[in-house]
């Protein structure tokens, strides 16, 4: 790792920097062969993936309950868990081989992080994870679908933090009505890590409407009758 990049990584991870290096090593050694990252991603793991994920920690309240939906290779969940050990973090992933990977990483790094197999839209998952303070997702789906899947896991007033690319504003404009119907309010595009990354992380941030939660509760009561 170049010295300048190492300094930036140490600024982000602080005393937990050795864990971040260990995660990087695991991805370098096993990520491609296990279908977690493409061959071109190895040389830019720090900048484009690990730090890109970790800087989102600046948006998360102290000690909050976080669900990382579609965690995959562990992004952004594992970097967030390393940078912010105060978080109550669950990594949600539907694919068995990726769940196995995430479990191995959590054990190897000694993280206090739960790995759960399932999809955000499944009733059992919603029952278990509903009321979370924050839900994160990185490169999972367009906002139209992502909000339908993720917002039911968020408590009223909690946040959906969707890591997106440079076209985030256009996507938000395109899917604004779907976001509103799903219960997302005050959606906006923010950037994180401007003092650390050459290309800051672009995030679509929104809160969950109190009224959406009440509608969900009413629907559940009707089904139970």
TrEMBL record:
Its main location: cytoplasm. Gene3D superfamilies: Vaccinia Virus protein VP39 (3.40.50.150). GO terms for cellular component: cytosol. It is an enzyme of class 2 (transferase). Its EC number is 2.1.1.-. Coiled coil: none annotated. Keywords: Cytoplasm, Methyltransferase, rRNA processing, S-adenosyl-L-methionine, Transferase. The keyword Transferase applies. The keyword NADP does not apply. It is found in: Cytoplasm. It comes from the Bacteria. S-adenosyl-L-methionine binds at residues 70, 75, 120-121, 138. One of its GO terms (molecular function) is rRNA (guanine-N7-)-methyltransferase activity. Specifically methylates the N7 position of a guanine in 16S rRNA. Belongs to the methyltransferase superfamily. RNA methyltransferase RsmG family. PANTHER family: S-ADENOSYL-L-METHIONINE-DEPENDENT METHYLTRANSFERASES SUPERFAMILY PROTEIN. This is Ribosomal RNA small subunit methyltransferase G. It comes from Saccharothrix espanaensis (strain ATCC 51144 / DSM 44229 / JCM 9112 / NBRC 15066 / NRRL 15764). The lineage of its organism: Bacteria, Bacillati, Actinomycetota, Actinomycetes, Pseudonocardiales.
């Amino acid at each position: 790792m170049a010295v300048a990049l190492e300094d930036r990584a140490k600024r982000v991870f602080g005393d937990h920097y050795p864990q971040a290096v260990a995660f990087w090593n695991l991805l370098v050694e096993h990520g491609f062969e296990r279908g977690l990252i493409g061959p071109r991603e190895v040389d830019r793991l720090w900048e484009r993936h690990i730090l890109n994920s970790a800087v989102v920690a600046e948006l998360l309240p102290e000690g909050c309950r976080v669900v990382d939906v579609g965690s995959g290779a562990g992004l952004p969940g594992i970097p967030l868990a390393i940078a912010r050990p105060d978080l109550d973090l669950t990594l949600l992933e539907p694919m068995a081989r990726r769940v196995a990977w995430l479990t191995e990483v959590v054990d190897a790094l000694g993280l206090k992080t739960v790995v759960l197999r399932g999809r955000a839209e499944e009733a059992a998952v919603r029952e278990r994870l509903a009321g979370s303070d924050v839900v994160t997702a990185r490169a999972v789906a367009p906002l139209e679908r992502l909000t339908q899947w993720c917002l039911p896991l968020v408590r009223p007033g909690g946040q959906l933090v969707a890591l997106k690319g440079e076209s985030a504003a256009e996507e938000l404009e395109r899917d604004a009505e779907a976001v509103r119907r799903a219960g997302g309010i005050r959606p906006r595009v923010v950037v994180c890590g401007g003092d650390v990354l050459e290309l800051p992380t672009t995030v679509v941030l929104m809160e969950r409407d109190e009224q959406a939660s009440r509608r969900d509760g009413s629907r559940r009561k009707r089904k139970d009758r």
